[in-house]
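hiii so um. not sure if this is the right channel but i have a protein structure encoded as tokens and i wanna go backwards to a sequence. like what aa goes where. can anyone help
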């Protein structure tokens, strides 16, 4: 109750009078020419605008304090400028943007200090989702898998679960709209549960982030940044249409955004449909079709003392589950067995600004309504998961070179069953964690360290008859953990940047691991849980080295991850009703490997970009047995050319990709090996300017050689089903 009262107090802060602080200026290039349509945003605040045709901009209601302004436009280097605002001040500045070589720097919000990438102590990958979607990906997880160190556990095109350095499921935490996403992610056949429409970018933390996010972040974090509101005083309308040849798929989206000085609004709507995909040998994989509907709403309010951002996302997914013996009929409507999933995400993010500090709160409610259907009127599984979570952070006044944050996080979760079968019992989960972290800035060197304590309580209800299938005993378990992290970043010169991070993380066993007792239809096996499982606890060392020159850079990321009490499932050799029995066990484990890559931007061929990266991970149990579901090593290559044809065709590009996946022979006792394969993709796109009508178009192709291949992490691998064959994608984007 105290939490609710405190949040109401924060909302009431809008009644307090606000100072009319503002900052204005002009943006120019090295030749003193003004630059229009430069995106200007304020780090840590929900403020966003653009420069006009004279290169001028103005930001009103800027909070008192020290802020970082980010200036960003295509073909120019990103620029960050630190500004100090005092009471009732109108500041005027001039900004010079240098022509871009090829280096991209982004503001990182997932690591709480919200620094640009080059200033951040932890290496965080930042992906612009529209750039990934232009490469012909079908779902959001496939887009994430284009990043080095990330792959996906997939079931056809409709279900994809991200894997970061060999860890997935409940070991990778997902944040959307600033809150923790909970949607029964324990299952291999449960997808990400998000649609890329209305999501601007994603930040990928590879490694334990339990200090900032608690349990389930021991393997990494996927932090999805929602689309920004329109620039102040602007209203924009966006229409998108994408077609896929292989699945006769269609992705249609519509968005409208409008912003005044204090109030902002946006609406995004998406409809996606795909038929069954075809393999390279011409066969159709029946019931890999799916239909997805997604709507996102947002409204924001901001003054110089207070900002609030209220967002809602409703996602409906109806997808088929491929299975032997299904007779193909209809066209797009999924057949049985199928999943029908409704996902609601409601969030409120608030910031209160004091003279030298600020208070942030994020509260959210997530409702996941999941059905698995065996027939028109036969509901096998029907689970409702309701999660309330909160995150409070107080940014203390800066003391010299020290920046510090205190925080508290928690969630209350209830799972209920309403179907004929049960995978997990009715249960209640309560979680609370407190943390403190500090960053010290010493010219070219930066230190960051922190500590955290978490407590989780799990209670389940008894169901069924003891000794029979479907029996769930009462479980009353408490899990707790202390974790810490220390990081060091050093910019030895203008070219060399080094990061070293050592962090611990943990994960409490989930309900499936603790209580399973029955046939898991999605995995075709009889699963037995273990109520005596302990916390997974890990320590990981990460080393990152970046070298940056005007026309060449490279990076090397290495990691070593030691996990105590690693939980995994393995066959017992027994059968129940014709299903192989699997049970959950624990053993110590290690994962190690990394990623390395180069980016060549040769002079004088400034239009050419050549990138190449290699990623690898090895996972072993104590005793040198291999861990299951470890992705194969991958060598990714991309050649891209950027150019302007004339005044009508601008920002044009052409690319060709060659991704080589090595054979995976290091498998666990119940896995099969997979062969190597090479995939070729290509695409072309441009902005088209026709007087008052401006739009973007692109054509891309994946698996252009129609290669027969099966990824190691495909759940259709055991049936010998190939992944999708050649797919040509055509897209249009109108901004009105």
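sure thing!! here u go:
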């Amino acid at each position: 109750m105290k939490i609710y009262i405190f949040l109401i107090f924060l909302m009431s802060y809008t009644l307090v009078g606000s100072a009319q602080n503002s900052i204005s200026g002009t943006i120019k290039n090295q030749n003193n020419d003004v630059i229009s349509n430069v995106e200007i945003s304020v780090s840590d605040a929900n403020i966003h605008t653009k420069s006009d045709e004279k290169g001028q901009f103005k930001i009103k209601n800027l909070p008192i304090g020290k802020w970082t302004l980010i200036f960003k436009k295509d073909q120019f280097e990103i620029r960050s400028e630190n500004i100090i605002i005092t009471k009732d001040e109108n500041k005027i500045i001039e900004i010079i943007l240098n022509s871009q070589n090829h280096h991209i720097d982004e503001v990182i919000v997932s690591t709480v200090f919200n620094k640009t990438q080059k200033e951040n102590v932890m290496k965080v990958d930042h992906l612009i989702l529209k750039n990934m979607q232009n490469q012909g990906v079908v779902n959001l997880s496939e887009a994430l898998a284009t990043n080095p160190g990330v792959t996906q556990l997939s079931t056809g095109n409709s279900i994809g679960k991200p894997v970061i350095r060999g860890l997935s499921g409940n070991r990778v935490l997902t944040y959307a709209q600033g809150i923790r996403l909970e949607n029964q992610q324990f299952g291999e056949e449960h997808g990400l549960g998000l649609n890329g429409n209305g999501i601007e970018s994603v930040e990928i933390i590879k490694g334990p982030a339990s200090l900032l996010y608690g349990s389930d972040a021991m393997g990494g974090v996927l932090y999805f940044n929602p689309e920004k509101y329109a620039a102040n005083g602007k209203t924009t309308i966006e229409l998108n249409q994408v077609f896929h040849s292989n699945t006769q798929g269609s992705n249609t989206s519509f968005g409208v955004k409008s912003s005044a000085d204090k109030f902002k609004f946006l609406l995004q709507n998406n409809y996606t449909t795909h038929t069954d995909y075809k393999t390279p040998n011409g066969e159709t994989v029946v019931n890999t079709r799916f239909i997805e509907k997604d709507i996102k709403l947002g409204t924001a309010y901001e003054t110089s003392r207070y900002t609030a951002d209220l967002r809602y996302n409703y996602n409906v997914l109806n997808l088929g589950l491929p299975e032997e013996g299904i007779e193909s009929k209809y066209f797009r409507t999924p057949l049985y067995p199928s999943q029908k999933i409704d996902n609601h995400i409601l969030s409120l993010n608030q910031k209160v600004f004091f003279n030298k500090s600020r208070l942030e709160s994020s509260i959210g409610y997530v409702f996941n309504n999941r059905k698995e259907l065996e027939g028109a009127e036969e509901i096998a599984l029907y689970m409702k998961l309701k999660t309330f979570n909160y995150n409070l952070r107080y940014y203390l006044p800066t003391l010299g070179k020290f920046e510090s944050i205190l925080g508290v996080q928690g969630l209350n979760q209830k799972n209920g069953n309403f179907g004929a079968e049960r995978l997990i019992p009715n249960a209640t989960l309560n979680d609370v964690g407190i943390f403190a972290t500090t960053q010290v800035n010493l010219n070219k060197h930066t230190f960051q360290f922190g500590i955290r304590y978490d407590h989780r309580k799990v209670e389940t209800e008894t169901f069924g008859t003891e000794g029979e299938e479907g029996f769930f005993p009462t479980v009353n378990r408490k899990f707790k953990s202390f974790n810490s992290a220390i990081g060091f970043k050093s910019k030895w010169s203008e070219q060399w940047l080094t990061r070293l991070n050592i962090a611990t993380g943990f994960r409490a066993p989930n309900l499936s691991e603790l209580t399973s007792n029955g046939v898991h239809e999605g995995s075709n096996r009889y699963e037995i849980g273990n109520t005596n499982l302990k916390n997974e606890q890990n320590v990981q060392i990460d080393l990152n080295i970046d070298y940056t020159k005007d026309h060449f850079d490279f990076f090397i990321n290495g990691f070593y991850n030691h996990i105590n009490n690693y939980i995994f499932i393995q066959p017992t050799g027994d059968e129940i009703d014709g299903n192989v029995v699997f049970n959950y066990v624990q053993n110590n484990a290690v994962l190690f490997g990394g990623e390395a890559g180069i980016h060549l931007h040769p002079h004088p061929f400034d239009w050419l970009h050549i990138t190449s990266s290699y990623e690898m991970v090895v996972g072993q149990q104590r005793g040198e047995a291999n861990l299951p579901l470890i992705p194969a090593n991958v060598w990714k290559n991309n050649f891209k050319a950027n150019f302007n044809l004339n005044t009508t065709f601008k920002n044009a590009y052409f690319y060709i990709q060659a991704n080589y996946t090595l054979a995976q022979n290091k498998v666990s006792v119940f896995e099969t090996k997979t062969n190597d394969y090479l995939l070729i993709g290509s695409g072309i796109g441009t902005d088209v300017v026709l007087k008052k009508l401006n739009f973007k178009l692109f054509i891309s192709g994946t698996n252009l050689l129609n290669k027969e291949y099966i990824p190691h992490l495909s759940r259709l691998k055991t049936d010998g089903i190939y992944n999708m064959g050649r797919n040509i994608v055509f897209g249009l984007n109108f901004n009105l």
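oh and The chain has two domains: 20-100, 220-472+486-735.
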